[in-house]
Amino acid sequence: MTDQLDLLTKEELKDLVRIYARNIYALDGVWFQSVEAECGMDDAMLHDKQAWTRFTRTEALRIKNFLNLSEKPGLDGLEKALAIRFSALANPSVDLFREGESLIYRVNVCRVQSARKDKGMPYHPCAPVGFIEHAGFASAIDERIVTEMVSCFPDVTDLSCACCWRFTISNSSN
Fold first, then answer.
1. What does the DSSP assignment read for 108-165?
2. Helix, strand, or coil here: 171?
């Protein structure tokens, strides 16, 4: 049997990867909203934290292996990994840049929050899960990386974006 991916052009493959990235968010939203409707936001958040703790590490390690990153690739390795993780490919507008000794990951327009807004639902209180997701991803890439939430709902400090995260290398690590 012919591998159907071999029949696709490079542009079609890129489009397909972006579709799959959006599909991950769609699946996450569908199960979350099911638990939220049945059991309430607190239970949904509990299960969301557990799921993201496990998924994030798996995603990071697979990307680290794909990129053939060293054991401790620092912020350079994290930058490469963040650029191709599903959330960077799925969200309509993401910035990734250096600011001094830090790496900034900024989601300007969030697919999750936009979908909830379009459905007339309250925003997802994603800060606790977002921290688990971003810190878990960063530490799986390099255990020395420290994650700081700059802004994320409901702890919004920057109204110009959906969320923003700062990554640095710990001074106390080797």
1. EE-HHHHHHHHTTPPPP--HHHHHHHHHHHHHHH-TTEEEEEEEETTB-S-TTSSEEE
2. coil
Q: Output the pLDDT for position 171.
A: 78
Residues 6+ apart with CB under 8 A from 114: 92
How does DSSP assign 1-17, residue by residue? ---GGGGS-HHHHHHHH
Three-state DSSP class for residue 95? strand
Mean pLDDT of 35-49: 94
**Can you give the pTM of this predicted structure?**
0.91
3-state secondary structure of 91: coil
Burial state string for 92-112 with b = 16 or more CB within 10 A and e = fewer than 16: eebeeeeeeebbbbbbeebbb
Indicate the angle between helix axes 10-39 and 111-118, nearest 10 degrees. Answer: 60
Stretch (H or E) spanning 99: strand 93-99
Report the pLDDT value the prediction gives residue 116, as an integer from 0 to 100.
87
Chain segment 115-168, per-residue pLDDT in tens: 889 999 889 899 999 999 999 999 999 999 999 999 999 999 998 999 999 999
